[in-house]
Amino acid sequence: EYSCEYGSLKFYALCGVGGVLSCGLTHTAVVPLDLVKCRMQVDPQKYKSIFNGFSVTVKEDGVRGLAKGWAPTFIGYSMQGLCKFGFYEVFKILYGNMLGEENAYLWRTSLYLAASASAEFFADIALAPMEAAKVRIQTQPGYANTLREAVPKMFGEEGIWAFYKGVAPLWMR
Predict the structure, then answer these.
(1) Within-domain flag for 115
(2) Are 84 and 23 in contact (CB under 8 A)?
(3) Is 163 helix (H, G, I), strand (E, B) or coil?
(4) 1 falls in which pLDDT band (50, 70, 90)?
(5) Where are the Solcar repeats (predicted)?
(6) CB atoms within 10 A of CB 146
(7) H-helix segments, 20-69
(8) pLDDT at 25
């Protein structure tokens, strides 16, 4: 017995929920490490190594400072996981149906690659706004401490483009 029919809306929803849990939770769990990595990239003179970066951050912002950017990380990577896992299955079935059963089997590796790339295209569009806010919060001291502060400030300064400047690099990654 299966929990749902393959290719049904419930199937896609469960795949999406799996993506939310696997991407949103894991990326949020490593926010302190990501925060220090981003700061090392932006200011290598101040954040000389991982351990030094943790030490400087705790000295300046306290232990809670290591959680800066957790909300956009959780929301952004949850959205990315939803799209990545859900759309992968959508595209896999769509492309498989376009090829026909025999060709879908013969070309399955290429089919999976195309489905994955298609899903990632949309997943990165979903991630980009929150990733942009997260990077501002983590790397620009005094810019904003929370998502609620960062989003209106970014929109006011640069409009909607502020949230999508990083989408092309995400696609390239």
Answers:
(1) yes
(2) yes
(3) helix
(4) confident
(5) 10-94, 107-173
(6) 14
(7) 26-29, 31-42, 50-61
(8) 96
Judge whether 3 lies within some domain.
Answer: no
Q: Which two tokens stand for residue 111?
A: 């089919």
Tokens standing for residue 14:
């469960």
Instruction: Report if pTM > 0.85.
Output: yes
Residue 118 tokens, joined: 């298609």
DSSP 5: -
In a domain, 70, yes or no: yes
* Encoded tokens for 43: 């200011």
- Triad 34, 143, 163: Cα angle to 5°: 70
User: What is the C-alpha to C-alpha distance for residues 62 and 74, in angstroms, rounded to an integer?
Assistant: 21
Q: Residue 88 belongs to what domain range? A: 9-172
Which tokens in the block code for residue 46?
Answer: 């101040």
- Count up the domains in the chain and report the number: 1
Say if 130 falls within a structural domain. Answer: yes
Residue 121: give its domain's CATH number: 1.50.40.10
Burial class for 118, CB neighbours closer than 10 Å (0-12, 13-18, 19+): middle
Q: What's phi and psi for 69, nearest 5 deg?
A: 90, 10
CA distance 162 to 158: 5
